Amino acid sequence: MQYQLEGSGPVIVLIHGLFGDLDNLAGCARALREQGFQTLRLSLRNHGGNPPEATMSFPEMAEDLERLRRQLSISRWALLGHSLGGKVAMAYAQAHPEHCWGLLVADIAPGAYPRRHDTVFTALRQLEPATLNNRQQAQQQLAQAGIDLPTAAFLVKNLRPLEAGGFYWRLNLDAIIDAYPSLIDAIPEAPPYLGPVMFLKGGYSDYLQSRHRDDIQARFPEAQMKILLGAGHWLHAQKPVQFNRLAAEFFRAHHPHGDTQTAVV
User: Fold this and answer.
1) How many helices (H) and strands (E) does the chain have?
2) Cα-to-chain-centroid distance, residue 187
3) What is the CA 203 to chain-centroid distance, rounded?
4) Under 8 Å CB-to-CB from 126, ≥6 apart: which residues?
């Protein structure tokens, strides 16, 4: 698994959303390190520089995390996940509560969602990376296919140049599309996670709604929720100063005192 471990102190894992990679939450990781935490950024399976995998269910991705924890000899850590990364973080916390001392979920609920990425999937499949001269050309084609410019700019970060010219997708697009029905489904049923949890909602986003409250409380009875005004679904990028402050305040308030281990690498 592709990961970046930096700093010293209690460990916080940062997990990106769909089509992202370990760089997406780099600013938040830097802010957390300034507050005395060790940060572990990673790319989920079929994202970033990871080898391709045929499947990517929530149990599988939670176990990817658990294998990495054991590999790095980390006894306990906290998790911060955005969107898809939030669902993976929730699945891990419920499956391995003894190894998770805190959980921050950014703008996602544990339940099922309707399809909302089909336009993106169609546009990405129509793109022919090997014929591109530059990323701007890809961004223009995505915009012409109906993708808003900020999303198009985010997506083309996954293009990497070929030595002979043109580009290739660094992510495993076919596997992600195949797994999409399970990725928008609810995370697995499991005993509730009883540790500290914060759900952080973007004020303009519709990803977290009142209909999700009962499911959240059943799975995470200690959960609190805060709203980041002026932000949409990509709240960590739209309001980074406020997002990073809320994250640091939450983890400072709840990390186990004396747990300042540094991972063995």
Assistant:
1) 10, 9
2) 14
3) 19
4) 141, 145
Alpha carbon 77 to its chain's center:
16
Per-residue tens of pLDDT for the chain, all 265 residues: 999 999 999 999 999 999 999 999 999 999 999 999 999 999 999 999 899 999 999 999 999 999 999 999 999 999 999 999 999 999 999 999 999 999 999 999 999 999 999 999 999 999 999 999 999 999 999 999 999 998 999 999 999 999 989 999 999 999 999 999 999 999 999 999 999 999 999 999 999 999 999 999 999 999 999 999 999 999 999 999 999 999 999 999 998 875 555 554 4
Would you say the pTM of this structure is higher than 0.85? yes
CA angle (89, 92, 96) in 5-degree steps: 145
Cite the active site residues: 83, 233
Q: At what angle do helices 26-34 and 240-254 cross, to 10 degrees?
A: 50
User: Rounded to an integer, what distance in angstroms lies between the CA atom of residue 220 and that of residue 110?
Assistant: 10
Question: Which residues, 6 or more positions from 236, have their beta carbon under 8 angstroms from its beta carbon?
Answer: 24, 25, 27, 28, 82, 106, 243, 244
DSSP 207: S
CATH class of 3-114+184-254: alpha beta
- Following DSSP, what letter does each residue of 70-131 receive, concatenated? HHTT-S-EEEEEETHHHHHHHHHHHH-GGGEEEEEEES--SS------HHHHHHHHH--GGG
Element (H, E) at 148: none
Which tokens go with 112? 């099922």
Which one-letter DSSP state was computed for residue 199? Answer: E
Q: Which sequence spans correspond to the domains of the chain? A: 3-114+184-254, 118-179
